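Example record

One chain of 381 residues, shown exactly as stored in the release files.
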Amino acid sequence: MPQLRPIRSLLPSRSAGLSDADAGHAVTRRPVEPTPAEPTPAEETVVNSAVYRDGRKTATPATLSEALASLPDASSMAWIGMYRPNDAQLYAAAKQFDLHELAVEDAIVAHQRPKLERYGKTLFVVLRAARYCDETERVEFGELHVFCGPTFVLTVRHSESPDLSAVRRRMESNPDLLRLGPEAVLYAILDAVVDGYAPVVAGLQNDIDEIETEVFSGAPGVSRRIYELTREVIEFQRATRPLLGMLRGLSAGFEKYNTDEELQRYLRDVTDHATVVVERADGFRQLLGNILTVNATLVSQEQNEEMRNLTQASYAQNEEIKKVSAWAAILFAPTLIGTVYGMNFDHMPELHWVGGYPFALSLMMLTCAGLYTIFKRRGWL
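Predicted structure tokens for this chain:
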């Protein structure tokens, strides 16, 4: 790899003056003090601490003050990693590194939106890492806060991801890149977070493929899974979409802060990867919307088919009922006539007729024939 020339910084150097906006008025800042009476040592949450000079590790200080004191000159850098510090511990670190109180408040209150803020000589970056859990088929989100100063990088993790130890090993194995200073570390962290989105994209794509199969196979409960996956995709969009604006903000400062050309290429590569992730997430959300529409259509068609089958069954049942009713009416007529003439009263008309019996039979037959003809014409028989 060709020798990379050192850069000044994405941030103003220690000797640089205030910007035009800062020159007009002084910024009054309240002293940052821990709330407890006896603050807990911040070192209890420090998971890694090192001082680098010209891309090589020169010290592993035990305390934050020792880390700052171990910086021989402005070309050195301290890289401190903290894991889930409480308020007092973070306030103690803020006091050592002279961090802005608003940035510290954001770091204390987790679940921040990804963003990039500049406080004087320090950049404050909030990142949302994500990882896909194959066991639960769910996306888990983490949060990382990065304070990037002229001679230090302070990372505050609130979750297991991203694995910053891997980022540190990568940078220590590449002294030419680490020599570029805190901005190179910030690039490596951004690159690790964005690369961590690739397995999430693959996992979401696999879930969507499974949902498509379930939709067209009529699997029960698929609507609930579509809804839950849509929520995960929306949360993934909230974690990834702000990255594009953050990276554009960094790119806008390339010329102002005389950023090394090699580091500019690295950051542009991260921007390209982030753009692909954002586009894939947008596509997932649109695809899930289409799948939900198709599923609703298929469910509606299935319900219509069930209603049609029920209607046909009801129609067939009505036809059978009509036939039974027609035959019951036909058989009821002779039964009625026979019942009337079988009452055996002494004083009944036609009771002593010689032709009474043929007359009764003829009346029964004519009545049955008439009813049969009527029901036949109406389609009941």
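Notes: Strands lie at 46-53, 56-59, 76-83, 115-119, 122-133, 138-148, 152-157.
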